[in-house]
Design brief:
Length: 793
């Protein structure tokens, strides 16, 4: 049986592993001595069984450990010696070990028996000479020559009763551990085999067959050792008679048929005289032992009597109760501690509340997944161990359930009809799973007449942000938590107060809750006086009623009054327009004809209009006719600047209070707002420029030329030519000068804030909210799922 830690409070039972010697009178009717007056049912019997199993577990572990250390090369090759109490198994093992015997006369004078001095006996054995139990531990022989480990595999039909019957069965299961190469030696004394009456031998063989239910193993690996054998005894006839005597379906026939084959029976001769004993033939034993080799990993199913099965049922029920008590109390308390550790985790201050809830839900899912007996071993250990925190591991003792579950499985293997307790254990964890479910729930968020309400076991400012997004016009947020509120998210809200009622407030990183008022507004419109600044909005209120805190020094609460808005600056005056000559007034001052002329010298090479004229007689005449006009345009005056606006009034600050722990607000964080700055007056506009100009209008500019008749230098009559050029031209010469740059005056700057100081936000009604919170806590404590995680407040 694969064994880890069968810590069953006391359930792993005793090493009272019987090994028997030959009785001194060889009588099959010898009195069998058993412990008297021991309970076989009820709590007292279960307690004794626990004690017996504890001792058996320890003894077998010690036996196997010793064998592993002493025979590392052939530890897995094991020869199990089985047989009824008092048939000489212990004596046979001493012979295998090569320990010399003393031959002692029987007290009744009939024959002799073998004995070993006390100092030479195998550890844990006590050779008996009646049919009482001879040993209290499984004897082990490390046979270096035969390369095998011989183990007393505990007696069949232990005379001590059902307690030892179950304990022995446990020893058998543990001895046949995984990886074992097994051979089985069945020890029966000759007198019992030779007395063919009743059903003793078939029943014994059938019990062995049921213990090792594989037919091939029975045929190949089980050998018969006849103790107290006489020199000439031949067991084949008796075995044939027993085969015929066995009832139909009795698997003893399989064993008998196997024994009747060659080299499958070894006779351990009885002493016939005092002196040196030489009745153990090593060659014969080696031949019998070597036939057919060993069987790997034989399946073992120890046979129990009805009383033992009843005791198994009682024990499983007690294990069920013990496991349920552990799960309901210690394990659930430890899981609660794990949840609290997650809530109070300081290693990740940036963890979001959503991540914490997801982590808790995953823990709940792991708990609900515990449905089979295997789940209550390593998986439960992992749930409690993997989620453990420093200093808490021993509190949970999750390995206890592994021992309980393994013991239940072992007892179920002994009696498959027993009802296993996994349903009861699973339901024992249902309350803590339900408590974790409600602990991880999202908060209930409602709104009524501007009051935003959040209620839950775990709350966070993150929840408030989500609620405010859903109800943006809320003016008061009340947060009721029955376990912890987290303030690790900075927020900034105007015109909304916050009230937190929670057993504990966690703020594990620098965080600000800013409920300060807003700054007043100001506007400017062209050509109007500067607008007055708006008043600031008042700071809101913060209230926390808590019993404990973690990291409160990281929390900053601001509730300043908003500053008044600045008055707008007055607008500047408009500049005057410049004078425009196109629309100016004008007057004519002169007009006339100015004739004059001059002559050209004969033979000169003058030109007019691009013609070269050479003439003996040339005259020019120029007439200029003109009119002179003067213009004047006056610029317009600039306008005055407007007055600046009044600054707005500052608003009153709010309040901040955290009751239940030592905390004082910073006064500057609650200060009233300042009035806004006044706007300056606007600058005046400049006058427009005055403009003046004059205009000359020319009418004609003409010349006449008389040239010789011969044209170029001829002397004939001259030709008179008249040429006209239009010299009409308007010429304006503009002049300007600047008038007074300040037409009147600039705007003025106010000296007093605008309007009245705004009213403060209404205070939080702490008494009313406290009464409401008490009702909330009463409901939480009345909820069987929620009450486990309700902190004191």
């Amino acid at each position: 049986m694969k064994s880890k830690h069968l810590i069953l409070l006391s359930i792993l039972l005793s090493q009272a592993a019987p090994v028997w010697a030959m009785d001194d009178d060889g009588s099959q009717n010898s009195t069998v001595t058993a412990r008297q007056n021991l309970p076989v049912r009820g709590p007292a019997a279960v307690a004794l069984l626990r004690d017996a199993i504890n001792h058996m577990e320890a003894s077998v572990d010690q036996t196997l450990t010793t064998a592993r250390n002493q025979a590392p090369r052939f530890y897995d090759k094991k020869v199990f010696v089985v047989g009824e109490t008092g048939h000489g198994k212990t004596t046979f093992l001493h012979a295998v070990a090569g320990i010399p015997f003393d031959v002692i006369p029987s007290r009744n004078g009939r024959g002799f028996y073998l004995d070993v001095p006390l100092q030479k006996r195998l550890a844990g054995t006590n050779i008996g000479h009646t049919r009482t139990v001879g040993t209290v531990a499984p004897a082990t022989v490390i046979d270096q020559g035969r390369q095998a480990v011989f183990i007393d595999c505990l007696g069949f039909g232990d005379p001590r009763g059902p307690i030892e019957d179950v304990a022995n069965a446990l020893g058998v299961k543990k001895l046949f551990e995984q990886g074992t190469q097994a051979k089985v030696l069945l020890v029966i004394e000759e007198e019992t085999l030779a007395t063919v009456r009743g059903n003793f031998v078939p029943d014994l063989l059938n019990r062995l067959a049921e213990t090792f239910p594989d037919d091939n193993m029975l045929r190949d690996s089980v050998r018969l050792v006849i103790t107290k054998a006489t020199q000439g005894y031949s067991p084949q006839v008796d075995l044939g008679d027993w085969r015929n005597h066995a009832q139909t379906g009795n698997r003893a026939k399989i064993l008998i048929d196997s024994f009747l084959q060659r080299d499958r029976i070894f006779k351990f001769l009885a002493p016939i005289s005092q002196g040196r004993y030489d009745g153990f033939n090593n060659n014969d034993f080696a031949r019998v032992l070597g036939v057919d080799g060993y069987t790997l990993n034989p399946r073992v199913m120890p046979v129990l009597n009805p009383a033992a099965k009843l005791l198994i049922g009682d024990t499983v029920d007690e294990l069920r109760k013990e496991g349920r008590r552990y799960l309901e109390e210690d394990a659930s308390d430890h899981i609660q501690t794990i949840c609290e550790s997650k809530i109070n985790d300081r290693t990740n201050p940036n963890r979001a509340i959503g991540a914490l809830r997801t982590d808790l839900r995953a823990l709940r899912s792991d708990i609900l997944a515990l449905t089979t007996m295997d789940d209550f071993k390593d998986p439960l250990h992992q749930i409690i161990g993997d989620n453990d925190v420093s200093g808490q591991r021993q509190m949970g003792q999750p390995q206890l359930m592994g021992g309980l579950a393994q013991s239940v499985e072992f007892l179920q293997e002994l009696d498959p009809t027993v009802h296993t307790p996994e349903d009861s254990w699973r339901s024992a964890l249902a309350p803590i799973a339900g408590s974790i479910e409600v602990l991880a729930d999202d908060p209930v968020v409602t709104e009524n007449q501007g009051i935003l309400s959040l209620q839950g076991r775990l709350l966070s400012i993150e929840d408030l942000v989500i609620g405010k997004q859903r109800y943006p016009h809320s003016t008061l947020a009340k947060m009721f938590a029955s376990n912890t509120t987290f303030a690790n998210t900075p927020i900034r809200y105007e015109n909304m107060s916050i009230a937190i009622f929670s057993p504990k407030l966690n703020s594990l990183k620098p965080t600000s809750i800013d409920l300060s008022g807003g700054v007043g507004t100001h506007k400017t419109y062209p050509q109007q006086a500067g607008q007055n600044g708006g008043h600031g909005t008042p700071g809101a209120h913060f209230l926390a009623n808590i019993a404990a805190e973690d990291g409160l020094t990281n929390l900053t609460v601001l509730a300043k009054g908003g500053n008044g808005g600045d008055g707008a600056r007055g607008t500047d005056g408009a500049h005057g327009a410049d004078g425009n000559l196109d629309h100016a007034a004008h007057h004519q001052i002169s007009t006339g004809l100015l004739p004059y002329g001059w002559g050209c010298h004969h033979g000169g090479g003058h030109s007019a209009e691009g013609h070269h004229i050479r003439s003996d007689d040339l005259r020019h005449q120029l007439d200029l006719r003109y009119t002179q006009v003067l213009y004047h345009a006056q610029g317009s005056a600039g306008s005055a600047g407007t007055d600046g606006g009044h600054g707005g009034q500052g608003a009153p600050g709010g309040t901040a209070k955290i009751a239940g722990v030592a905390w004082n607000p910073v006064p500057a964080n609650l200060a009233n707002g300042s009035s806004g700055s006044h706007g300056a007056g606007g600058n005046p506009g400049s006058n427009g420029r005055n403009c003046a100009g004059e205009e000359h209008i020319g009418r004609h500019l003409a010349y006449q030329a008389l040239v010789g008749k011969s044209g170029f230098l001829g002397t004939g009559p001259g030709i008179y030519a008249d040429r006209h050029i239009d010299l009409s031209n308007k010429t304006i010469t503009a002049k300007s000068h600047v008038g007074n740059r300040v037409a009147t005056a600039g705007g003025s700057k106010p000296t007093a804030p605008h309007g009245k100081v705004p009213a403060a936000i209404s205070a939080i009604d702490e008494n009313a909210l406290e009464a409401e919170y008490r009702l909330f806590r009463t409901a939480e404590l009345a909820d069987p799922d929620a009450k486990r995680f309700v902190r004191d407040h």
